[in-house]
Amino acid sequence: MIRVNAAAVSSCSTVRRRLELDHALAIAAGIRVGATISRSDLAELVRKDSIASAEKDALALLTRRDHSEAELRKKLRAKDHDAAAIDVVVARCTDWGYLDDERIARQLVNDAINLKRLGPARIKQKLGELGIDKDVAREAVSRAEDNAPSPVEQALGALASKRRSYARLDAETARRRMYGFLQRRGFDFDTVRAAVERFENELRDAE
Fold first, then answer.
1. How confident is the model over 28-62, as pLDDT tens digits?
2. Do residues 89 and 55 touch, judged by C-beta distance below 8 A?
Protein backbone atom coordinates (compact mmCIF):
# COMPACT_ATOMS: atom_id res chain seq x y z
CA MET A 1 0.00 0.00 0.00
CA ILE A 2 1.11 3.59 -0.66
CA ARG A 3 0.23 6.50 1.63
CA VAL A 4 -0.81 9.54 -0.40
CA ASN A 5 1.12 12.69 0.56
CA ALA A 6 3.06 15.45 -1.14
CA ALA A 7 6.41 13.72 -0.62
CA ALA A 8 5.18 10.46 -2.10
CA VAL A 9 3.81 12.20 -5.15
CA SER A 10 6.92 14.24 -5.83
CA SER A 11 9.19 11.22 -5.45
CA CYS A 12 7.32 9.11 -7.99
CA SER A 13 8.97 10.30 -11.21
CA THR A 14 6.90 8.08 -13.54
CA VAL A 15 3.59 9.61 -12.47
CA ARG A 16 4.69 13.00 -11.13
CA ARG A 17 3.33 15.17 -13.94
CA ARG A 18 -0.03 13.42 -14.18
CA LEU A 19 -0.73 13.29 -10.41
CA GLU A 20 0.28 16.86 -9.79
CA LEU A 21 -1.81 18.18 -12.65
CA ASP A 22 -5.10 16.38 -12.03
CA HIS A 23 -6.11 16.50 -8.36
CA ALA A 24 -9.76 16.44 -9.48
CA LEU A 25 -9.34 12.91 -10.75
CA ALA A 26 -7.91 11.76 -7.44
CA ILE A 27 -10.77 13.41 -5.55
CA ALA A 28 -13.34 11.83 -7.88
CA ALA A 29 -11.74 8.45 -7.14
CA GLY A 30 -12.17 9.09 -3.40
CA ILE A 31 -8.47 9.53 -2.71
CA ARG A 32 -7.48 12.02 -0.02
CA VAL A 33 -4.13 13.15 1.35
CA GLY A 34 -3.23 10.82 4.18
CA ALA A 35 -5.18 7.90 2.74
CA THR A 36 -3.56 4.68 1.63
CA ILE A 37 -3.85 3.31 -1.91
CA SER A 38 -2.73 0.04 -3.41
CA ARG A 39 -0.24 0.01 -6.23
CA SER A 40 -2.86 -1.44 -8.57
CA ASP A 41 -5.31 1.35 -7.73
CA LEU A 42 -2.57 3.91 -8.21
CA ALA A 43 -1.72 2.40 -11.60
CA GLU A 44 -5.40 2.57 -12.62
CA LEU A 45 -5.57 6.20 -11.50
CA VAL A 46 -2.51 7.04 -13.57
CA ARG A 47 -3.99 5.18 -16.58
CA LYS A 48 -7.27 7.10 -16.37
CA ASP A 49 -5.45 10.40 -16.00
CA SER A 50 -3.21 9.59 -18.98
CA ILE A 51 -6.30 8.89 -21.10
CA ALA A 52 -8.04 12.06 -19.90
CA SER A 53 -5.00 14.17 -20.79
CA ALA A 54 -4.69 12.62 -24.25
CA GLU A 55 -8.43 13.02 -24.85
CA LYS A 56 -8.25 16.71 -23.95
CA ASP A 57 -5.44 17.30 -26.44
CA ALA A 58 -7.17 15.22 -29.13
CA LEU A 59 -10.43 17.15 -28.86
CA ALA A 60 -8.56 20.45 -28.97
CA LEU A 61 -6.88 19.37 -32.22
CA LEU A 62 -10.10 18.07 -33.77
CA THR A 63 -11.96 21.26 -32.85
CA ARG A 64 -9.57 23.26 -35.02
CA ARG A 65 -9.93 21.01 -38.08
CA ASP A 66 -10.48 17.44 -39.21
CA HIS A 67 -7.52 15.10 -38.82
CA SER A 68 -6.90 11.66 -40.22
CA GLU A 69 -6.25 8.92 -37.68
CA ALA A 70 -2.56 8.87 -38.61
CA GLU A 71 -2.26 12.65 -38.19
CA LEU A 72 -3.92 12.57 -34.78
CA ARG A 73 -1.75 9.71 -33.55
CA LYS A 74 1.40 11.52 -34.70
CA LYS A 75 0.44 14.75 -32.94
CA LEU A 76 -0.50 13.00 -29.71
CA ARG A 77 2.81 11.11 -29.72
CA ALA A 78 4.57 14.45 -30.18
CA LYS A 79 2.85 15.62 -26.98
CA ASP A 80 4.36 12.63 -25.13
CA HIS A 81 1.14 10.69 -24.63
CA ASP A 82 1.70 6.96 -24.26
CA ALA A 83 0.59 4.47 -26.88
CA ALA A 84 -2.08 2.82 -24.72
CA ALA A 85 -3.81 6.13 -23.98
CA ILE A 86 -3.64 7.12 -27.65
CA ASP A 87 -5.28 3.83 -28.67
CA VAL A 88 -8.18 4.44 -26.27
CA VAL A 89 -8.66 8.06 -27.35
CA VAL A 90 -8.53 7.23 -31.06
CA ALA A 91 -11.18 4.54 -30.56
CA ARG A 92 -13.38 6.98 -28.66
CA CYS A 93 -13.03 9.74 -31.24
CA THR A 94 -13.87 7.25 -33.99
CA ASP A 95 -16.98 6.07 -32.13
CA TRP A 96 -18.08 9.67 -31.60
CA GLY A 97 -17.67 10.42 -35.32
CA TYR A 98 -14.87 12.92 -34.78
CA LEU A 99 -12.39 10.72 -36.67
CA ASP A 100 -13.46 9.45 -40.07
CA ASP A 101 -10.77 8.75 -42.66
CA GLU A 102 -13.35 7.92 -45.32
CA ARG A 103 -15.00 11.33 -44.89
CA ILE A 104 -11.65 13.12 -45.00
CA ALA A 105 -10.58 11.22 -48.12
CA ARG A 106 -13.83 12.05 -49.95
CA GLN A 107 -13.58 15.74 -49.05
CA LEU A 108 -9.92 15.98 -50.03
CA VAL A 109 -10.53 14.30 -53.39
CA ASN A 110 -13.57 16.43 -54.19
CA ASP A 111 -11.73 19.65 -53.32
CA ALA A 112 -8.64 18.56 -55.25
CA ILE A 113 -10.66 17.86 -58.38
CA ASN A 114 -13.25 20.63 -58.30
CA LEU A 115 -11.43 23.49 -56.60
CA LYS A 116 -7.69 22.94 -56.88
CA ARG A 117 -7.72 21.16 -60.29
CA LEU A 118 -5.15 18.58 -59.22
CA GLY A 119 -4.36 15.46 -61.20
CA PRO A 120 -4.49 11.86 -59.97
CA ALA A 121 -0.82 11.64 -58.98
CA ARG A 122 -0.96 14.72 -56.76
CA ILE A 123 -4.25 13.59 -55.20
CA LYS A 124 -2.76 10.21 -54.30
CA GLN A 125 0.30 11.97 -52.88
CA LYS A 126 -1.84 14.20 -50.63
CA LEU A 127 -3.86 11.23 -49.41
CA GLY A 128 -0.62 9.41 -48.64
CA GLU A 129 0.69 12.40 -46.69
CA LEU A 130 -2.38 12.19 -44.44
CA GLY A 131 -1.74 8.51 -43.82
CA ILE A 132 -5.04 7.48 -45.39
CA ASP A 133 -5.33 3.71 -45.93
CA LYS A 134 -4.69 2.82 -49.59
CA ASP A 135 -8.02 1.01 -50.00
CA VAL A 136 -9.91 3.98 -48.50
CA ALA A 137 -8.02 6.38 -50.78
CA ARG A 138 -8.65 4.23 -53.85
CA GLU A 139 -12.39 4.10 -53.13
CA ALA A 140 -12.60 7.87 -52.61
CA VAL A 141 -10.80 8.57 -55.89
CA SER A 142 -12.94 6.06 -57.78
CA ARG A 143 -16.21 7.56 -56.51
CA ALA A 144 -15.12 11.10 -57.31
CA GLU A 145 -13.96 10.20 -60.82
CA ASP A 146 -17.37 8.68 -61.63
CA ASN A 147 -18.94 12.15 -61.38
CA ALA A 148 -15.99 14.32 -62.38
CA PRO A 149 -15.01 15.70 -65.79
CA SER A 150 -12.41 13.75 -67.74
CA PRO A 151 -8.76 14.28 -66.76
CA VAL A 152 -8.25 16.37 -69.92
CA GLU A 153 -11.17 18.62 -68.99
CA GLN A 154 -9.77 18.98 -65.49
CA ALA A 155 -6.36 19.91 -66.90
CA LEU A 156 -7.98 22.44 -69.22
CA GLY A 157 -9.71 23.98 -66.23
CA ALA A 158 -6.37 24.34 -64.48
CA LEU A 159 -4.84 26.03 -67.55
CA ALA A 160 -7.82 28.37 -67.88
CA SER A 161 -7.01 29.86 -64.47
CA LYS A 162 -3.70 31.10 -65.94
CA ARG A 163 -4.98 32.09 -69.39
CA ARG A 164 -3.82 35.70 -69.19
CA SER A 165 -0.29 34.71 -68.20
CA TYR A 166 0.11 32.27 -71.09
CA ALA A 167 -1.47 34.64 -73.62
CA ARG A 168 1.34 37.16 -73.03
CA LEU A 169 4.12 34.65 -73.75
CA ASP A 170 5.56 33.42 -77.02
CA ALA A 171 4.23 30.03 -78.09
CA GLU A 172 7.29 27.97 -77.16
CA THR A 173 7.67 29.50 -73.69
CA ALA A 174 3.95 29.18 -73.00
CA ARG A 175 3.96 25.51 -74.04
CA ARG A 176 6.94 24.70 -71.83
CA ARG A 177 5.35 26.38 -68.84
CA MET A 178 1.99 24.71 -69.41
CA TYR A 179 3.62 21.28 -69.53
CA GLY A 180 5.51 21.93 -66.31
CA PHE A 181 2.46 23.40 -64.58
CA LEU A 182 0.22 20.43 -65.34
CA GLN A 183 2.85 17.82 -64.56
CA ARG A 184 3.47 19.41 -61.16
CA ARG A 185 -0.27 19.18 -60.52
CA GLY A 186 -0.20 15.45 -61.04
CA PHE A 187 -1.50 14.92 -64.59
CA ASP A 188 0.11 12.20 -66.70
CA PHE A 189 1.94 12.97 -69.94
CA ASP A 190 -0.84 11.95 -72.33
CA THR A 191 -3.37 14.08 -70.47
CA VAL A 192 -0.98 17.04 -70.41
CA ARG A 193 -0.27 16.79 -74.13
CA ALA A 194 -3.95 16.62 -75.07
CA ALA A 195 -4.89 19.49 -72.76
CA VAL A 196 -2.08 21.74 -73.97
CA GLU A 197 -2.94 21.13 -77.62
CA ARG A 198 -6.58 22.03 -77.02
CA PHE A 199 -5.67 25.07 -74.95
CA GLU A 200 -3.25 26.36 -77.59
CA ASN A 201 -6.02 26.05 -80.18
CA GLU A 202 -8.35 28.02 -77.92
CA LEU A 203 -5.73 30.74 -77.51
CA ARG A 204 -5.25 30.99 -81.28
CA ASP A 205 -9.00 31.10 -81.91
CA ALA A 206 -9.33 33.94 -79.43
CA GLU A 207 -6.77 36.12 -81.22
1. 656 666 556 677 777 788 888 899 999 999 999 99
2. yes
